[in-house]
Design the sequence.
């Protein structure tokens, strides 16, 4: 009669990011005075627009992606019977070089009513390739454990019936949790006096995967 051996396999790695993403939001959100919202937002958006244009003129190949989204809306908070307004432009800028990203952030961080968020990412193609390698390593780790368990009781592995993410199994079968990709290096900035230079260093992107495998042994 075949014996079932259930084991988990894991693999983890960290990689240097391929690009830095800067999210710039220029404008005012949630203020009651519509005229002030328009005026402040207009000043912030124009300042950001000019700084981005000047930076792109100086470094024409600095940006690999430039996406803009505009939100202008009003709503009423009935509990306080007050209408509030928003006028916000969001720009997503992608940089391949950390030094150019740092130079851009240093230049734009002093704009009033503008906020900046920075994160580091892998390109989708590279992430997919590296994740596939991690899954293979996790399965190989599970097989090594199963071989060791079988040998300890004088058996050998004859087959595998199931390989799965722990989240796809019942609570009785799940040995350990699965943690998805973890993006580190998140930085946020509020309006401050402009500095001549700041340095943002990319932090490694870490990922860990876990599988659960059911082997048969005889």
Sequence:
């Amino acid at each position: 009669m075949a014996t079932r051996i259930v084991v988990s396999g894991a693999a983890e790695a960290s990689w240097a990011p391929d690009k830095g993403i800067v999210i710039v939001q220029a404008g005012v959100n949630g203020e009651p005075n519509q005229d002030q919202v328009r005026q402040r937002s207009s000043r912030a958006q124009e300042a950001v627009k000019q700084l981005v244009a000047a930076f792109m003129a100086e470094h024409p190949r600095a940006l690999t992606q430039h996406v803009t989204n505009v939100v202008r809306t009003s709503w009423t908070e009935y509990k306080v019977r007050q209408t509030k307004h928003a006028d916000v432009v969001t720009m997503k800028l992608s940089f391949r070089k950390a030094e150019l990203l740092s130079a851009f952030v240093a230049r734009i961080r002093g704009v009033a009513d503008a906020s900046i968020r920075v994160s580091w990412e892998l390109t989708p193609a590279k992430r997919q390739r590296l994740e596939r390698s991690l899954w293979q390593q996790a399965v190989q780790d599970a097989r090594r454990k199963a071989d060791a368990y079988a040998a300890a009781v004088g058996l050998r592995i004859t087959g595998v019936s199931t390989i799965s993410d722990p989240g796809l199994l019942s609570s009785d079968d799940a040995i350990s949790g699965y943690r998805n990709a973890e993006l580190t290096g998140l930085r946020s900035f509020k309006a401050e006096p402009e500095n001549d230079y700041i340095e943002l260093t990319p932090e490694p992107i870490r990922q860990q995967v876990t599988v659960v495998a059911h082997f048969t042994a005889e």
Summary: The two ends are 7 Å apart (CA to CA). The domain at 19-121 is CATH 3.30.70 (Alpha-Beta Plaits). Confidence is low (pLDDT under 50) at residues 167-195.
